[in-house]
Design goal:
Layout: H1 4-26, H2 36-43, H3 47-53, H4 57-76, H5 81-84, H6 89-101, H7 103-110, H8 117-137, H9 142-164, H10 172-192
């Protein structure tokens, strides 16, 4: 008889394989064309094993959305946005830590088209939560807040997606550092820092 700890590790490993397989498939084709057989074959499991954990493809999507959003909300929970305006690298370090915690998964996810409904939904949920946390600490009119966040988030997502689709000659930490300078000081700040 196996111990609960071993069973839990097996469950975690299997669910991770399913999530990674799904993300890999999603970087190759539309969600409507992904079948449970595709996921099972890519994850090297059988369909019965898939059904032990998920009711279908969209239950995988729901779990991925919820886990990503909760990871980023947890990372933002204790952020001092007033301090962040002067030292934005702290938020990028947290972002980098989240990405590095499951690099293969995020690599597949970031290779998807940003118009994919999964990516759009995640970005939208994160943006709402970041704006809420930010506006609780810093007073800014809605127009300016929307403008700043629309510009910054679209730019960051584009940079990370291009990096994941490149030969990755720079580290993700270098990319995050450069982005933090752009966010705080604009392009001039980046040029002044010689990056």
């Amino acid at each position: 008889m196996s111990s609960p700890e071993k069973t839990d590790l097996r469950v975690i490993k299997t669910k991770k394989a399913i999530r990674n397989a799904f993300a890999e498939l999603l970087s190759e084709k539309d969600i409507q064309k992904i079948t449970i057989k595709d996921i099972a074959d890519t994850a090297v499991i059988n369909r019965k094993t898939f059904y032990n954990y998920y009711a279908g493809v969209y239950s995988v999507v729901d779990e991925i959305e919820n886990e990503i959003i909760m990871a980023f909300i947890d990372a933002l929970r204790d952020v001092d946005f007033k301090q962040l305006l002067h030292e934005p690298y702290e938020i990028f370090k947290k972002l980098t830590t989240i990405i590095n915690s499951d690099f293969d998964f995020y690599s597949h996810l970031m290779k998807m088209d940003s118009n994919t409904s999964l990516i759009s939904k995640i970005i939208q949920a994160l943006e709402v939560n970041i704006k809420k946390s930010f506006s609780e600490q810093i007073s800014m009119n809605k127009f300016t807040l929307d403008l700043v966040f629309d510009y910054a988030i679209a730019g960051m997502i584009t940079v990370y997606q291009k990096w994941f689709n490149s030969d990755r000659t720079e580290s993700i930490e270098e990319i995050s550092k450069a982005l933090s300078i752009i966010v705080s000081s604009g392009v001039n700040g980046l040029l002044e820092n010689g990056i």
